[in-house]
Amino acid sequence: MNCRYALIVLALLVASPALAQRAGQRPQQAPPAGNAQQQPRQEKQFPLGASWAADTLNDRQLPRGDKRPSFTLDQTLRLRGFGGCNTFSATAYPLRGQSFAVGPFAITKRECAKDIMATERAFFIALRTAQRWDIVGGQLVLVGQGGVLKSDRSL
């Protein structure tokens, strides 16, 4: 009796895929090419180690030449740069979802012309209050309470 029972169970196990198909259950298949599910969008990675030269702040052109604000965020998340008159450093965090956070700045205390100092102050505020980042048309775009800062990649 035990041998017959074992043979019946074995036969049912072997036949189960065929039985499932007869019962209307179809094996899993890939969706047709026209109805393919969209792949999840890959999150952008912040370009650590790249140098950036500020181009515009709130669509206003920033100074060029030796007074052009610039910065780099290195692999250790250290933000270093030049505001147009003074150099600065801080810790910055490119976060998930293209969020961005910048810690307090350490800034040199050099005095320059009033217009350069005003531009530098606006640049520092925009950088310090940046909350989101994106790469658009090759430019790094930082957006926050201080406005929209667009920067070009530099050497």
Radius of gyration over alpha carbons?
A: 29 Å
Question: Could you say which structural class the secondary elements and strand pairing correspond to?
Answer: alpha+beta
| Cα shape | globular
Quaternary: single chain
Largest sheet: 10 strands, antiparallel
Percentage of β-strand residues: 25-35%
How far is the first residue's CA from the last residue's CA?
84 Å
List the total number of helices: 2
Q: Give the uncertain stretches in residue-range form.
A: 1-31
Number of strands: 10
- Determine the fraction of residues in helical runs and give it as a percent range: 10-25%
Helix and strand element order: HEEEEEEEHEEE
Mean pLDDT: 80
Written account of the structure:
A hairpin with a 3-residue loop joins strand 5 and strand 6 (99-102). Helices cover 23% and strands 35% of the residues. The model is unreliable at 1-31 (pLDDT under 50). Strands 1, 2, 3, 4, 5, 6, 7, 8, 9 and 10 form a ten-stranded antiparallel beta sheet that branches. It starts with a helix and ends with a strand. The chain is built from two helices and ten strands. With 155 residues, the chain is α+β, with helices and mostly antiparallel strands.
